[in-house]
Amino acid sequence: MILNATAKFTARKDEASEEAILTKDLIITDPSNGKMQLALTPDDTALTPQSYAADIELSFPDGQAKTVWKSQFVVKWDATRS
């Protein structure tokens, strides 16, 4: 349950990097069941193709924060050129 929380996605070049290459607020679509949506634009994914360290953190009104997901954000190359 994630009532009254906000959620943020962050990607970095690697886990040791201080600088975020992408941060996005998630849309909490079903707080009772913990469902969130990450909406990315083409500009958001116009990154060097590689794997980036990423996580999703929930922030609560009382100041607590909790990382609820950690993994790799993989950007693949695109063969199509417009």
Helix content, binned percent = under 10%
Task: Please tell me what the overall shape is.
Answer: globular
What is the straight-line distance between the termini?
A: 43 Å
Helix and strand composition category: mainly beta
Number of strands: 6
Radius of gyration: 14 Å
Helices and strands, in order, run as EEEEEE
If helices are DSSP runs of H or I spanning 4 or more residues, what is the number of helices?
A: 0
Strand content: over 45%
Give a verbal description of the structure.
- With 82 residues, this protein is mainly β.
- Helices cover 0% and strands 50% of the residues.
- It contains no helices and six strands.
- A four-stranded antiparallel β-sheet has the order 2-1-5-6, with no helix packed on it. A two-stranded antiparallel ribbon has the order 3-4.
- The protein is globular, with a radius of gyration of 14 Å.
- The termini are far apart.
- The mean pLDDT is 93.
Give a quick rundown of the structure.
Helices cover 0% and strands 50% of the residues. The chain has strands at 6-12, 20-25, 27-30, 35-37, 50-59, 65-75.
Give keywords:
82 residues, mainly beta, four-stranded antiparallel β-sheet, two-stranded antiparallel sheet, 6 strands, 50% strand
SSE blueprint:
Blueprint: E1 6-12, E2 20-25, E3 27-30, E4 35-37, E5 50-59, E6 65-75
Antiparallel strand pairs: 1-2, 1-5, 3-4, 5-6
